[in-house]
Amino acid sequence: MIMEAKSFELNDVVEMKKQHPCGTNAWKVIRMGADIRIKCEGCGHSVMIPRRDFEKKIKKVLVRANEE
């Protein structure tokens, strides 16, 4: 079974499956590579996770960076 890769870009605001302990579910993609760094839109905490894990945990893109 091949899963389709969700498309996201730098500075997109994405929704993850689990919400952050601060109560927010919106994260901004601030670094892309083999690892993805995301920053919580609520408290500003940033987390670095492997791309493979990120692609499993992302729900949807809330705000596209190029549409702002």
Automatic annotation (TrEMBL):
Top-level taxon of the source organism: Bacteria
Name of protein: DUF951 domain-containing protein
Upper classification of the organism: Bacteria, Bacillati, Bacillota, Bacilli, Bacillales
Pfam assignment, any one: DUF951
InterPro entries from the UniProt entry: DUF951
